[in-house]
């Protein structure tokens, strides 16, 4: 049966003065560090509450429709044996299955159907609007040039269930007409659930891998998707419950695109083990991304995870080994789990226009109805399956991103020219020395929003755009080429352990906020070039300008007057400054930075 998980509607406010145009200014980074186009009009720009947990986002969003195992457990399925363009059908619902001369097998009634065999045709579900249809995939291969391998035209909900110990492959046509609606290897107009204990390989040769115009839920099983555009698309919502999932896409890895209802268009990552290699965003949502569990390995050409509204992490393990910006949203909250980011630009970025703002710019994440094959600049499926993804650099020039298979786990890893997975981002000078006149404070200081760094907040003359970046818990490790923590609005830290390495060059800082910057708990440690330094209010801190540049891989210890270590950091690139704020830092105390037995700097908190 299709189970509806009850939610309550999101509550948002109307921003005061929203009739004026909003401009969400980037923080001090250069290039594409969160800068967005000016809005032409904002008749009802909405405020987004800072610090919302992932659980709160989920509660505020729409129902997620899941077909649970009670719909097929114990059922006697109608058997559908596929061979070429033919099908042999036996069982109670045999009269509800028909096959046309061109190899299209149509299922027209609710029920449980077991598919097996090899087909060069297609399977189409065209049932009543209230029907729930279960397809048990039991060693079935569909390789067609007629369109989607499985297409749902009409039903209430559909589940694809992989049988135990089965291996199944679904491959679609290599191209679609530009205006084709059904343009994925698995395409559904109804809510779609993927489940089971077997294996499913989906080859989206013409456009997307698996696409639902409603909700898409991955409940269990082993799933591998390769797509010429997006791998997984649920227009209203995508939910990952469990499973072992490998996604390789020229476009986005996981995407929800509904932007006309603020309770839809979200991605809920609740469990499983997911590996994503993407030529665009690893995860992209028109509204929210909520992470409540699971393990996620992402290598993306653009953002690792991007939400147009709110992105919140309550639990789980996130490893973004390659990205332009690791996590990005208008309101970003990290409250638990472990998050690791390697980024060529900002590590975590609160940026973008307020929800409800109308802009001249077109969202880079196009609707899933757009075909990759209709875009002359898009990579072909052969590029993706050969693991060579065409990408664009910041100038718009085409570049080639070579992906290589990790023989230890079979997962595809991106290896971009500018930044290989897990390696220091190629951005900035790289020598750790700020240029003359860069605005860096080469002195030392600290305190509680105190001397040596100026008042809380930053970003020069840039305005607070209403965005928020909140850290209440978890372990966060950032290796960045741009800003480490960057908010075009407020930056508030109340807990957790955050460690930042980089940037090495000028024009960016480890910490950046256009609005209030407050630390009232947790541990925050950063090592970077020393450029663009800002200071928080609240918890005491110390910022030390090092006597000499310290090489990448040098462990820098911060010790107090009793020689007790209060923090340490091992930067992945050459650095010239260290920032530390922990509950153990005491105002008025002198702290010393040491590399081995050598003192390399000191300052008073």
From TrEMBL:
Comp. bias intervals (Gly residues): 440-460
InterPro entries (UniProt xref): Cthe_2159
Skewed-composition ranges (Polar residues): 371-393
UniProt keyword annotation of Metal-binding present: no
Region ranges (Disordered): 345-470
Compositional bias annotation for Low complexity: 397-423
Annotated signal peptide: 1-26
UniProt keyword list: Signal
Domain of life (superkingdom): Bacteria
The UniProt record lists the keyword Signal: yes
Protein's recorded name: Uncharacterized protein DUF4353
